What does this fold into?
Amino acid sequence: MARGLSDADLLVSLDAIKASHGNVSEAARAIPMSRSTLQFRLSEALGRGLITQATLEQWRRGEGTAAPGAEKMLRLERTVSEMGREIAGLRGAALGKEDILKAITGVHAALPLPAPEWLNWVPKGVAPRQAGVPVFLVSDWHWGEVVRAEEVRGTNAYDPEIAERRAKRTLSSALDLLTNYERGPWEGSVLLLLGDIVNGIIHEELRDTALTSVTRDVVTVLPILRDYIDAFASTFGKVHVACVAGNHGRLTQNKRFKGAQEQNFEWLLYHFLASLFATDTRVSFQIADSPDIELDILGTRFLLTHGDRFNGGGGIGGIWSPIMRGVARAQQRETTWRSRFDYMVMGHWHQLIFGSQFIINGAMKGYCEYASTLGFHPQTPRQALWTVHRGKGITMERKVLCDGTDQMHSGLPRSAYLKGF
It folds into this structure.
């Protein structure tokens, strides 16, 4: 492999050649780049299998010269899949996180830093109690899963097409609430990515019913989350992104305790995002190496986790028993470490709840066959949003409706449900 040339570099060069109908000289002038350098990159791409000679000949005949779409997606999917296998291999070699990142993605210099100082800094001319920070929680998208309306009595339907529509509506709704219904000034913003963004293949039924592979799901979600981060940075001036991997993105079928974060497609997704914003001073990242992240926002302490380590929830007490027990144990542990939190924040349970000591996120996926079979309380697709002010803690709590409605469509067939949104 040529030193310094990633697959992404070669894909950019291939796009230029494709746009020039396979004419290397014309593509080199358009980039611009010397013809010999571009020819070398083409040879390297052929050697890595990113393109075939037959495809190159098609371009030269003027066939298939439209903007790259599915073909590029397949190449990126292959790259993510290979990286997943490399992570497992490198972990087996007992390498550290920095070694893995450098070996796989080349983003050694873009490793995320701890929470930035502005999260506890008050700008000049603004009273300490006026500076606020909006916090948006993103989790449990389960991108790639399929929920059939007829299996949940018409109350929900979900597939990659619906997921994309909901993701766009969720972002616009969150920004609408913060810009038209809440008033600043804002010191910046916080985006929490707390796992199960992709659905994964940890259960047999998920593999059997998924329309897309987990690697394709990572490739699809990457630009969507990039748009989320860019939108928050543009709207509020700064955004801090705190990330914890969920249980559905793990590379292994059985749950791991050692190296669990690194053995997860979402860990890779988060570092891809960090590399995209490595030179953007508006954006900072905090990516978990353990199941939890501590985050202090204007004096209010949050403990961030995915939530899958809490067991139970099937009894008459529902999810309250395992949650309250888990929060109490976590608080006891933190006290032993001479640290306490005001709120524990998690996803996983697919029930949006603002509690006195915890915040649980809803699911963009919405109600599913698993929840229906076990008799869990149905809830429309939603994500959590709140604001924090110094000296006051959480000052606003909102549900962001991913479908723009809070109505369950009970009894509707799948076709009617889809027409409603």
User: Anything to note?
Assistant: The chain has a mean pLDDT of 78. Residues 251 and 263 are 6 Å apart (CA to CA). The chain is about 40% helix and 15% strand.
